[in-house]
């Protein structure tokens, strides 16, 4: 029981400390803002130009809503996650907080897992919010403009698996970024590597080896919703494995870390 209480206190401390970072609001709110902005654009376009007859025969969940939203998501979400994860480490780099952190009567193991759990919970909660707002957007548009045809398609299964696999991708990216942030104090390196890998994955996504590049999952989420793909593929299993592999690496780096 005491171990549980100690972990809970460590987690609460991390939650209080990290919730003051602006980046957490970015990873939570910017995806929602994107969804709302796309909805406003769709409503404006319908009111201004009307609804094309041919458009009403296409699946609006993917052609009207999903296509635009996931074009933003696969480009911006990994960057938001990278910024958020580095901010979680940067708070310890400031004023040599690692020295203070490692002198409190809580084991490094509990501190590490409280930080890791907080990062993963935040990302999952962010994806969950985006998922809910995505569904609500379609339902709202089906009421406002039934001519678009949202109510004619049951797209819930595709949407669920697309967001699920995207959540796995972002969780894996967060653990990779945590590794980079534990190695590099300067944010330029973790964020720069994240942006490079994101662009590189877009170039090579059709290659077989791209399944081993975690960042490919962002663009694959766009392809998944456009192709209505709900099956788990090699990339998804690799990303699941990457979460555990990089968590283990991060644990080693964190517990061996000294005050700087």
UniProtKB/TrEMBL annotation:
One Pfam family this sequence matches: ABC2_membrane_4
Q: Where are the bilayer-spanning segments?
A: 24-44, 64-89, 117-146, 158-180, 187-205, 234-254
Q: Which UniProt keywords apply?
A: Membrane, Transmembrane, Transmembrane helix
Q: What is this protein called?
A: ABC-2 type transport system permease protein
């Amino acid at each position: 029981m005491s171990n549980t209480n100690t972990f809970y206190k460590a987690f609460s401390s991390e939650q209080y400390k990290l919730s003051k970072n602006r980046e957490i609001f970015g990873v939570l709110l910017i995806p929602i803002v994107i969804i709302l902005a796309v909805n406003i654009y769709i409503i404006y376009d319908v009111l201004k130009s009307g609804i094309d007859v041919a458009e009403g025969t296409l699946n609006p969940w993917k052609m009207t809503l999903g296509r635009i939203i996931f074009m933003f998501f696969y480009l911006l979400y990994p960057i938001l996650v990278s910024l958020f994860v580095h901010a979680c480490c940067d708070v310890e780099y400031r004023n040599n907080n690692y020295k203070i952190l490692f002198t409190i009567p809580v084991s490094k193991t509990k501190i590490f897992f409280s930080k890791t759990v907080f990062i993963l919970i935040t990302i999952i909660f962010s994806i969950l919010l985006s998922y809910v707002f995505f569904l609500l957007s379609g339902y709202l548009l089906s009421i406002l403009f039934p001519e678009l045809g949202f109510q004619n398609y049951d797209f819930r299964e595709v949407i669920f698996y697309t967001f699920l696999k995207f959540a796995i991708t972002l969780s894996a990216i967060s653990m990779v970024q945590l590794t980079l942030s534990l190695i590099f104090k300067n944010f330029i390196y973790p964020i720069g590597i994240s942006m490079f890998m994101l662009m590189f994955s877009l170039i090579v996504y059709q290659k077989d080896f791209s399944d081993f590049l975690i960042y490919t999952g962002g663009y694959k989420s766009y392809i998944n919703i456009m192709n209505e793909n709900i099956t788990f593929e090699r990339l998804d299993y690799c990303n699941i494995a990457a979460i555990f592999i990089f968590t283990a690496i991060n644990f080693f780096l964190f517990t061996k870390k000294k005050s700087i």
